[in-house]
Design goal:
two-stranded parallel sheet, single chain, two-stranded antiparallel ribbon, alpha+beta
Length: about 70
């Protein structure tokens, strides 16, 4: 998730409306596929929370948050 709220699935820009159905479809093929959210360091938490809420409403209960150590 970029600081402006733009969401990407892997390296492809995707709307929140399409995100959950796409991940659900991917999980039909790979049921144990993990879901991780990585936000830019300056991404407001609002964007992270909105994305997590969208995934949860779609039945995706386990989501990991990816952080990178300070350089």
């Amino acid at each position: 998730i970029r600081k402006n709220g733009t969401v990407y699935l892997q390296k492809h820009k995707i709307s929140l409306k399409k995100l959950a159905p796409r991940i659900s479809a991917m999980r039909k093929v790979k049921p144990n596929l993990p879901v991780f959210i990585r936000g830019d360091a300056k991404t407001p938490y609002e964007h992270i929370a909105r994305t997590m809420s969208t995934l949860e409403m779609a039945g995706i209960k386990k989501v990991g948050l990816v952080t990178e150590p300070r350089r």
